[in-house]
Design brief:
heterodimer; A: two-stranded antiparallel sheet; B: mainly alpha; globular
């Protein structure tokens, strides 16, 4: 990551931290359960971004290592429905996972980080729907994050805070999943009439 | 009022040296509805709790800022079988430690949780592990009853569902087949797992073990070597062990020692240093033995992984090198932490001091110490302690007593080549090389002849006399593995001849197999004998038309 992007990220985190600080100081003056919940969410979002950054750039080996374990793709996606950094009212639904295999080998921690980043990206664009799904395609497990936003190439409604960190993380996580002759990858598709599919393919 | 959650009945233990972190983890467990939560600040403290109470969840920080870290605590609990079968162990670790810890461990906990953790993280792992336990319950219940055949059937039931737990059941079944001595079946299971998922580590290790169990040592070695050279495999200790055991089985002790050295470089634990030291000592590489025993002793001092044997073995090695003063300094070092010394420890201590005093010329003192050590040696066994006392006796001129002890040590397990190596070395060290044939040869020959005679009696149809003869040997040498194997086999053959399942005899064989399991854990020959025992039972049950029951199958090997 170059210095410009790092500065952008730090700047963004500083702003988010400022918001959180203000929320906490208000809470100190007047405790309120709902506001505390929101502050908690903001804290989780901040942490998610920091963990994403450290995962990408903080490893001493300079390369992500996937510790693949035997997981149920469906249960794994179901656990993402209750992710702490999900903003209030952000849409999220689990698809049928009809063709998903009953088990697959992947690193649940890294894949969760990648999908969480993809979800935050989808929530920035989505109008009313974000859908998570899993399927078996060409011998790969494919996780999809679909949003019904304006589609690829549209202006980012929160472009100021976008550093590209999320997509970079997703690509690195996919690449960390390697099999003989096959490697994970990330794809973005425009969907007609509108919307985007983010896909992470895991061998 | 407490809210009932799926976790209300769980009793948990939090192990963390930092008070604030303890409080946070307790709070997070309480948020999940876990009612009873204890906390421990160190490994020793945790051990006290675990010994006195049944926990179903242990949440342990990796870094305990003390002599023992979380992984060592976990491995100790596993090896000492202190964790109940239904207890989940979650390791909390910093991201920076995770890669090295997860890749290089003798045993893996049920989950690693990366800091900072939330109640949600814990709940997610807890939920998954409880589901897994439920799905595999029938298998583990049978394993708990040591009924391997029923456990294999329970695996088949899970496999037939082809659901999320398929691979777990396959992994368990592979190990069960290996324990049952059904090497071909085990190999096929591992091959099918590898077909589903190329490179799967447990299946590769299992396949290498199956090759080794089948006596295909070259294939086992090749596969283990491939694993070690792979990107994910260079820290997989099980691969080093298969490689070392295969080399040892082919008579290449020096090669096996090199492999053990490599594994101790990858994971420099006290346990690994001990393996190197023991191999080096037997192979006469005293400098390496000394360095490795010293590392094992120093690195585990004050930790729960400390073993008093390290201090004694180091001193014996120093004595063999002629370093009497250093040996005395080693013996004079007071133990750190709790002394867990036995009478045997004190006897060996005396024997080693006697050896040292002989070397420094203090013969009078040495004679007194040897007299005390000999008086305290009641049960001579095929072990280090007996040989140390024998050596002291030989050095101080008590030749008859020394030779007698060595003869007993060899007889106690007369086909144990490790003991023969140690006894041979001891005799050479004290200038009694000419006695080797007399001691090692005579003891081995005597037992071989008596066992042969017992088998002859059996072949001549004198079943009762044959069984009596073998049981007499067992009385004298209850830990002689060859005698135990023969006893198990002759009893099985006599059951077959008698054409009925005599429950007393069945129990006896089961007892012999249990003893063998303890003396030779994870041993392929024990697995083969267990298979023969099972086949015997199955044949007799088929004759009687009785269905196979859980009560009449084999024992489980440690795994």
């Amino acid at each position: 990551m170059n210095h410009e992007l790092l500065a952008l990220l730090v700047h963004d985190l500083k702003n988010q931290l400022g918001v959180l600080e203000a929320e906490l100081s208000l809470l100190e003056a007047k405790p309120d359960r709902l506001k505390a919940h929101r502050a908690h969410q903001h804290c989780a979002q901040l942490r998610q971004r920091l963990v994403a950054y450290l995962t990408l750039y903080g490893s001493p080996e300079g390369q992500l290592v996937a510790h693949a374990s035997d997981e149920s793709p469906r249960d794994f996606l179901a656990s993402l429905l209750s992710v702490a950094s999900r903003p209030d009212g952000a849409p999220l639904r689990l698809g049928s996972c009809e063709t998903a295999p009953p088990f697959w080998y992947f690193d649940p921690r890294l894949t969760r980080l990648a999908l969480e980043a993809a979800l935050h990206n989808a929530w920035r664009f989505a109008r009313s729907e974000v859908l998570l799904d899993a399927a078996l395609r060409d011998g790969f497990l494919v996780f999809t994050v679909h949003d019904d936003g304006p589609g690829l190439g549209a202006a980012d409604p929160s472009a100021q805070s976008s550093t590209g960190l999320g997509l970079e993380l997703c690509a690195a996580v996919a690449r960390a999943h390697r099999m003989p002759n096959r490697e994970g990858r990330v794809l973005l598709h425009r969907r007609e009439p509108g919307g985007t599919d983010f896909e992470i393919w895991l061998p | 009022m407490r809210i009932e959650t799926p976790y209300s009945k769980i009793e948990a233990l939090v192990v963390d040296d930092m008070a604030t972190q303890q409080t946070t983890l307790r709070g997070q467990l309480a948020m999940l509805g876990i009612g009873k939560i204890d906390a421990a600040g160190s490994a020793d403290d945790a051990l006290r709790h675990i010994r006195s109470k049944h926990y179903s969840l242990i949440l342990c920080d990796y870094n305990l800022n003390h002599k023992t870290d979380g992984q060592q605590l976990f491995e100790f609990l596993r090896e000492q079988q202190l964790l109940p079968a239904d207890c989940l162990f979650f390791m909390v670790t910093a991201e920076s430690n995770y890669n090295s810890v997860a890749a290089a461990s003798e045993h893996l906990p049920d989950a690693y949780l990366l800091k900072p953790i939330t109640a949600g993280d814990i709940e997610e792992r807890l939920k998954a592990q409880l589901e897994k336990r439920q799905a595999l319950l029938a298998i583990n219940q049978q394993l708990g009853k040591h009924d391997l055949a029923a456990a294999a059937s329970a695996c088949d039931a899970v496999l037939a569902r082809k659901d999320r737990w398929y691979m777990h059941a396959l992994q368990l079944k592979g190990q069960i087949e290996l324990d049952l001595g059904r090497v071909d079946e085990a190999r096929n299971i591992y091959l099918s797992a590898l077909e589903l998922r190329a490179g799967l580590m447990w299946a590769q290790i299992g396949l290498a073990r199956a090759h080794k169990a089948a006596g295909k040592f070259d294939q086992a070695k090749q596969l283990a070597q491939d694993i070690i050279e792979s990107r994910e495999g260079h820290k997989v200790l099980a691969a080093y062990d298969v490689l070392a055991q295969s080399l040892e089985a082919q008579g290449d002790s020096a090669g096996a020692l090199e492999v053990l050295k490599d594994s101790a470089n990858v994971v420099p634990s006290a346990r690994r240093q001990r393996l190197v030291a023991e191999g080096a000592y037997r192979n006469g590489d005293l400098a390496l033995a000394k360095a490795s025993y010293a590392k094992a002793w120093k690195s585990s001092a004050g930790s729960i992984t400390a073993q008093p044997q390290d201090q004694l073995a180091l001193a014996q090695t120093q004595l063999d090198l002629g370093e009497a003063k250093e040996a005395l300094a080693t013996l004079d070092t007071p133990p750190t932490g709790k002394p867990n010394r036995s009478n045997e420890f004190d006897t060996v201590m005396l024997a080693l001091r006697a050896q040292a005093h002989m070397l420094t010329g203090d013969t009078e003192r040495a004679a007194q110490e040897v007299a005390q050590a000999l008086a305290a040696t009641r049960h001579s066994k095929a072990d280090f302690a007996t040989i140390a006392v024998a050596k002291a006796a030989l050095m101080t001129g008590q030749v008859e007593a020394g030779l007698k002890l060595l003869l007993q040590a060899v007889s106690a397990d007369h086909e144990n080549t490790r003991i023969q190596q140690l006894v041979t070395k001891a005799l050479l060290d004290v200038g009694q090389g000419e006695q080797i044939e007399q001691v090692v040869g005579a003891a081995t020959k005597g037992l071989k002849t008596r066992l042969h005679e017992a088998k002859l009696l059996f072949r001549n149809g004198q079943l009762k006399e044959a069984l009596e003869a073998i049981e007499t040997e067992l009385k004298d040498y209850p830990e002689n593995t060859t005698v135990l194997f023969e006893a198990a086999q002759i009893n099985c053959m006599s059951l077959r001849l008698g054409k009925q399942l005599n429950p007393v005899k069945v129990d006896e064989v089961r007892g012999y197999l249990a003893r063998l399991d303890k003396l030779l854990p994870m041993n392929d020959r024990v697995a083969q004998m267990r298979r023969y025992f099972r086949d015997t039972q199955a044949a007799l049950q088929a004759k009687a038309g009785a269905p196979a029951t859980g009560q009449t199958s084999g024992q489980k090997t440690g795994a």
